[in-house]
Each structure stands twice: as structure tokens, then as C-alpha cells.
Amino acid sequence: MKVIEHLQNSKDTVISFEILPPQKGKGIESIYNHLDPLMEFKPAFINVTYHRSEYMFKKRKDGTFEKVELRKRPGTVGICAAIMNHYKIDAVPHLICGGFSKEETENALIDLNFLGIDNVLLLRGDAPKNETFFVPEPDGHRYAIELLDQVVNMNHGIYIEDDLIDGLKTNFCIGVAGYPEKHFEAPNIETDLMHLKKKVDHGADYITTQMFFDNKKYLDFVNCCRESGITIPIIPGLKPITTKRQLTVLPHIFHIDIPTDLSKAILSCKNDEEVQQVGKEWMIAQCKELKEANVPALHFYTMGKTRVIHDIVQALV
Ligand SMILES: Cc1cc2nc3c(=O)[nH]c(=O)nc-3n(C[C@H](O)[C@H](O)[C@H](O)COP(=O)(O)OP(=O)(O)OC[C@H]3O[C@@H](n4cnc5c(N)ncnc54)[C@H](O)[C@@H]3O)c2cc1C
Question: Which of 57, 72, 119, 254 has its CA 20 to 30 A from that of 128?
């Protein structure tokens, strides 16, 4: 079933999870061990992130360095197929522009279609860790909207090869990203919204947001979207804080603010066990308020924290 159908068919707020592929070298059991305890909440769908390759410098025996390409967390498509097969739950692979040519994207979409996966979350991706700016592949996409156009084209049976006629029309339900606190490269929230509106006008079915810790930011963002004519569901993305270090790491990586009350409470904790408790309580309060505001889903970035996420969702059902 498509994400959009889950949202439309459910009377209550839907629960969904996002997971990361395991580090290379680990098996699918690590995914099942992570997800098994969360299955009692009957998630409507499970997203699996995509991680592009990174370039590293490896020291040779003679002291010189060699540039090597490394993908630390491969397996997004395989994990999605395994989840659908093992749990009979819809999986949503993330697809990114970074590192992909249009042809590789087309082939990945063909694989997904053959596997019966008809949901995708389409993203631009970021620059590799040791580079400052995102650079598209020579024959790749610069913005998520271009990737979206490719998927919409395939949904109409239009493939890259001009002379391929009567191509199978795929049937992908398309999610895109939105940023309640603005995407870090956008000059202002209005311009960011304008680009988001274009993704919607080109065929996105729903939006999933970046994490946020202040519900007002999400609710204001939804209002701004509605005022600019965006009518599709906007799913809040949620992540509990679990370590003191995240007070600086999360704003650095995700370009989001941590409310003063939350940061003060975390700073007064003696250890990360106490931080986890504070993070959980904050997230439960956030979720209760969001449920009351009738959000379409609560989408949890699980990031390997099975127990914490379990406790939060249990407090909501
Ligand atoms: C829910 C969610 C899931 C994610 N999952 C992953 C993942 O699995 N793997 C991963 O690598 N990253 C992931 N990311 C991170 C994402 O790739 C980055 O935030 C990236 O920097 C932007 O992606 P986007 O799809 O929002 O880009 P875009 O929509 O392309 O926007 C990027 C920037 O360009 C601007 N822009 C858009 N279109 C245009 C245009 N035509 N002209 C000029 N400017 C434009 C936008 O305002 C924005 O500032 C995720 C983010 C979210 C919110």
C-alpha cells in the first residue's frame, strides 16, 4: 500500500519509523533485532535511509596516500525488500541525487518496481563529509525536484531513452523533504517554501519534515505551507535527544534549534541515562500535542535507539 493511502485510510494518527542500514559487514538480523520490539505498534510503513559513498585517504605502505571510495551503509533496497517480506509492512526507500547518474536512478527504480516497492522518499542528499558543497554527478540531478520529475515521468511510462515506447508505467507514491526551520542553504524561509511548493506542483504526494524540538515551528511551517497553496499531508519527523553531545551535534548536522528549556534540562543531567529520560519526556509531550493537532503521522527517526523509541510510542497508545 502507498504511504498516502495509509494516511488517508487511517482514522487515527499513523505511527511510522525510519531506520538506517547497518554498517557494512553486519547482517539483516541486526535490522530485525532493532525492529522486532517496535512491531507491536503496527507501524504503517518503515523508511530506510540512503547513504552515498564517501572518499577517504588510505595510507599506503610507502607512506603515500591513495583516495578510496567507501560506502559505509549499503543495502537500502535489499533491506526494504527484506522488511516487506519479513514483516509484511510497507517499506519506503530513500533515493538521493548525490552520487547517481540518471541512468543509475532509472535502473534503481526498475529494481524497486520489480520488487513490488511502490513508495519512495526523494532527496537531494548532501555533499560528502570532506566536501563543502553538493555537486551533482555529470549526468545526475542537482535538486530533488529533478529526481522527482524523473520518477513522475516513469509513472507516465517515460524513460530516459527517447525511443523506448510503451514503457511500463510505474506507480510510485512520492514523498519529499520539508524544513520547518528552513533548509540551511536557502536564503530565507520564503524561498525555501517556493522550492517546496514546486516539488508539490510537480507531483509530490506528501512531505516529511526534518526533526524539530519545538512544535510551534512545525505548526507555523504547516500554516505557511497551507497559505502558499500546499495541501498535501505534512508528516512531522521526530527524534528524541539521548546524549548530551547531541546538544551540539544535532544543530551542527541538521541545522535546527534546541529550545532553551530542553537544553537547560539536558545540561543539568549528571549522565546520559538522565539525558535519555529528559529526552523521552520531552518527546512524549511533543507527540501528545502533535496528536491533538491531528497530524497525519508521527514519524520517528529511530537511529538505533529501539528501547527509547519503544518507551515513547508506548506512552502514546
Ligand atoms: C525526512 C528527511 C529524510 C532524509 N533522508 C536522507 C537520506 O536518506 N540520505 C541522505 O543523504 N540525506 C537525507 N536527508 C537529508 C537531505 O538530503 C538534505 O537535507 C539535503 O541537503 C537537501 O535535500 P532536499 O531533498 O530537501 O533538497 P532540495 O529540495 O533539492 O533542496 C535543497 C536546497 O536547494 C534549494 N532548491 C531547491 N530547488 C531549487 C532550485 N530549482 N533552484 C535553486 N534552489 C533550489 C532548496 O531551497 C534547498 O535550500 C533527509 C532529510 C529529510 C528532511
Answer: 119
